Amino acid sequence: MPTSAAALTARDLGAGALTDVSLDIPPGRILALSGPSGSGKSRLLRALADLDPHAGTVCLGELAQDRVQGHVWRRAVMMVPADSQWWADTVGAHFPDGAADDLAALGFGPETLGWQVSRLSSGEKQRLALLRTVAHRPRALLLDEPTANLDPDTTARVEAWLTNLIKRHDWPVLWVAHDPQQIARVADAHLRIAGHRLETAPCS
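The structure assignment produced for this chain is given below.
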């Protein structure tokens, strides 16, 4: 599988009520996605991640979603859902080799890897889910409100960390957000769900 930077593209995608969705996210760019609750934002991310059936085609450069096994695609195009899933007792068991980079950048110490998942707050889970995803070396990111449970200071910290990584690794990113100020801070482009379609919207 190729590993160079590549654009994430969709053509004529149909997911839930959304129809004829086409988008292009170049390497290293953040496309913000907004829309009313229940309009299909998460459903669209799940289609792009090959987690839900859908019409149309999705590609990451020359890698076509419908030509590889699902686990291969999802290792390259990784989704961070609003409510992260945890399947082992300790934090470290969710990371490759039980190790994680950038713990300090998001306010954690090395002892965090030994914590029981049951003791984590929603905000801690959200930050650690981001660290876990990055540790698996994706080639594109799908972020479903990645700072929804965080206070303003921690939100700023996560935004700075994420945007730096995105530019450094040339990841194409679709970032679901409700806050217009966050969209203005992080996004290179902005699409908004209007009815059954996407429309271009200003970033600020």
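Interim note for the steering committee: The CA atoms of residues 89 and 116 lie 6 Å apart. The two ends are 37 Å apart (CA to CA).
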